[in-house]
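Spend some time on this chain, tokens included, and walk me through the fold:

. . .
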Amino acid sequence: DRLSVMSNPPYYLTSDLLQTLVLNTAHISSAVLTLQKEAVERLISPPGCKQYTPLGVLYHLFADVEVLFDLPPGAFSPAPKVTSTCIRVTYEPALEDSSDIRGVHTVARAAFGQRR
């Protein structure tokens, strides 16, 4: 059985956590995460948008992201300086070989490295 993950990670871990989750869909089926609102906006931005990222490519291809609700800074103690967003992520069924996802990630990073 694949796992479900729930997390309110420190914001500096967001990219690493999202990358780890999507690269391990053989073991992870879904996640409910509270992240910095700006990070969620980058994650769900459409292709061609200035905020589109290599991680966004992976999530558009291998996951469904649903925005659940925003949380104001005052919902936390101590209060951060930013708004947070809670999302539900459903990962596509695991591929036989996660190297497919890793290959897409490598190509996306290289392509975005050439942005002008």
Notes: Helices lie at 14-22, 37-44, 54-62, 99-113. The first helix runs from residue 14 to 22. Residues 40 and 85 are 7 Å apart (CA to CA). The chain has a mean pLDDT of 88.
